[in-house]
């Protein structure tokens, strides 16, 4: 047991010249135990060890609270987005996603969900009728007119692939949809969904995703943002996209990579706020030049 733990720690946190020789033995152990460690909080506890015992225990406790009604860990990594201008209602909790509603626009603002790689194949069922959440029964049911598309922020296809038919059906609530003019942006969003399902999720095993609406100052929807977080590496990494709704030409998905710091400033949302300050800053400023 101590030997296994030692290999796991060396592969997870050791310098490159140590990891490379033991990769063949340690990587399968690391991949197998990473998800379990993540759920138990051990991965985060070790990741924060440099901050001292007190910070590590605090991170562990925060993750443990997810089974006791906490908003952190189960739906979002290091906490769901926090509105810095008080423009988001108390998020609505669902078994497999979390939904933040805008106070000003009276529209869905963002959705958080965790995806896990699954070998099970779930055949897409017939779409259920869109219904209001009983907690907000006065919320109008959206209807798309000609040339419009009902965009679900908690994505049914992604949740179906990861969690099954029940999770798929739970997304068909009125509060999860926003009417957007149909256009090229839909093809780009489908390209990113395909990469998530066929490439990124199988490699990362677990992804935390936040999708949301980028509103302009006149409260009109400007674009769709997607923030992905992966912890299946020696360091946390994030990848942020912004897809404008007025796109006229479809390009490579790397074209739509966006600065997380800029997104936070422009949307008045604070992501990953439960991380220690130096780790949060490092994560927010480490923006990839190319999609993973």
Average pLDDT, all residues: 81
Determine the CATH superfamily of the largest domain.
Answer: Extracellular Endonuclease, subunit A
Please indicate the count of domains: 2
Task: Quickly give the CATH architecture of the largest domain.
Answer: 3-Layer(aba) Sandwich
Secondary structure: helix percent: 25-40%
What labels describe this entry?
292 residues; alpha+beta; Extracellular Endonuclease, Chain A; six-stranded antiparallel sheet; two-stranded antiparallel sheet; 9 helices; 10 strands; 36% helix; globular
Explain what you see.
The protein is of the alpha+beta class and 292 residues long. It folds into two domains: 60 residues, no CATH class; 214 residues, Extracellular Endonuclease, Chain A (3-Layer(aba) Sandwich). The chain has nine helices and ten strands. The strands form three sheets. A six-stranded antiparallel sheet has the order 2-3-4-7-8-9, sandwiched between helices. Helix 1 crosses helix 2. The longest helix is centred in the N-terminal third of the chain and has 25 residues. The radius of gyration is 20 Å and the shape is globular. About 13% of the residues have low confidence.
Question: Summarize this, please?
Answer:
With 292 residues, the protein is α+β, with helices and mostly antiparallel strands. It has helices at residues 2-13, 16-40, 42-47, 53-64, 156-163, 165-170, 185-204, 260-267, 277-285, and strands spanning 82-83, 92-93, 98-101, 108-116, 148-152, 177-181, 206-215, 221-230, 237-244, 269-270.
